[in-house]
Amino acid sequence: MNLATIDTTRSFRPKSEALQLLIDRGFLHQCTDLEALDAKLTAGPITAYAGFDATADSLHVGHLLPLMAMRWLQKTGHRPILLVGGGTTRVGDPSFRSESRPLLDDAQIEHNLAGIRATVERLFDLSEGQGQIINNAEWLDEFRFLEFLRDFGTHFTVNRMMTFDSVRSRLEAQQPLSVLEFCYMMLQAVDFVELNKRVDCTLQIGGSDQWGNIVNGVDLGRRSGNQLFGFTLPLLTTASGSKMGKTAEGAVWLNPSRLSSFGFWQFWRNADDADVPRFLKLFTELPLGEIDRLASLKGPELNEAKKILATQVTGIVHGLAAAEAALQQGEALFGGQEDLSQPTHELPLTLLAKPLGLLELLVQVGFAESNGEARRLIRGGGVRLNSSIVLEEARMISEGDLKPGERLTLAVGKRRKALVMFV
Questions:
Q1: Band of the pLDDT at 153, cuts 50, 70, 90?
Q2: What is the rounded average pLDDT for all residues in the chain?
Q3: Within 13 Å of residue 48, how many CA atoms lie on the same side as its CB?
Q4: CATH number of 345-422
Q5: CATH number assigned to the domain with residue range 260-334, chosen from the 4 options 2.60.120.10, 1.10.240.10, 3.40.50.1820, 2.40.110.10
Q6: Which residues are annotated as a binding site?
Q7: What is the pTM of this model?
Q8: Residues of each annotated binding site for ATP
């Protein structure tokens, strides 16, 4: 197999618009056969897929990278398949995890699948012939155990599976790896072959941690005489070295039921200066020339680039109306006008039925993970209630703090700001 990485593309100039675009914008980490894939993309439209297990009722920012790569493929004339793991979620992908994923029941999986579909439907044209959401339970639920072992077991060796980083890292850490999880990579390989058989899918896109699983699918396809391709994306870390999409408040969810449009916008608006050029390339659809112009801005002018980044990404994920509303809220908040007309957080009115402390409010809004962290923020002088700095850790929220409509403003430092409405 002719494995190519981003380092080998410097002298390689693709003929296909899709591959050139993905490379120029920074999506390529590894590819199983770059030149053959380029020829395939040049010859005509292909079908590609990215898979998402239903471990939560929303995808998060970590999933946005493969989603954006798939959007570009669709924009350049190719057909995206969004594979949801109604079957594989019951097993759980062990890739680079120190412990097993919790097993979910069928009702929870179905609930999660509905949330994922709602996100994906906003991002793609899924009209007939343009794109499709497929659930791998369609075929995985039909397999009988002995038949599965007979048909596929001979194509996988434990020796090779032990060499994959995702498995080896778990074993080297002396963490248990169940047979259930060990079989996950077989299931993902079968997914690729089944999609090839059912909808002529020839390309799988996934994160760099999925390389071993993807290669297994490419190999399994080759054994049946089909040329399949794997394409992995770089592992994204921020300029500070943390994993992209992980914050003190937890995952940055794509579904507005898990994170408000303003909260999502604010995450991008607060990006580190050094991350802005790369994020503009990967998570917006702005022309590269415009991105170069925005990346050249310095000092306070760079804040304009951050607002453009935040509004562009929010528009793609939540819609243009939500992005415009979030921008208006952001202009007011970051301009010092902390009394807004639209709330950024809605909390149950029942919280005010009993004494509500500022510590608890900071946790409820997501500005602190615990009361202890909230205390440290107050001691540092970084907490403002209705534009006034609060230094009293035992500060309680009173009726006098509420503006008309049961609202108040809360801020931590210069970046994290909220208009809270109790409903």
A1: confident
A2: 86
A3: 30
A4: 3.10.290.10
A5: 1.10.240.10
A6: 49, 184, 188, 246
A7: 0.77
A8: 246
